[in-house]
Amino acid sequence: MAEFNNQVQSNNTTSFTSVKSLTESPQLTSLPPSYTFRTSSDDEVVSEPDQDDPIPIIDYSLLLHASPDQRAKTIHDIGMACEQWGFFMLINHSVSNTILENMVDHVFAFFNLREEEKQEYAGKDVMDPIRYGTSSNVSMDKVLFWRDFLKVVVHPEFHSPHKPLGFREASAEYCKRTWKVGKELLKGISESLGLEDNYMERRMNLDSGFQMLAANFYPPCPQPELAMGIPPHSDHGLLNIVMQNGVSGLQVLHNGKWINVSSAPNCLLVFVADHLEVVSNGKYKSVLHRAVVSNKATRMSLAIVIAPSLDTVVEPAKELLDNERNPAAYVGMKHRDYMQLQRSNKLDGKSVLDKVKI
Question: Is 90 in contact with 176 (CB distance < 8 Å)?
Answer without folding.
Answer: no
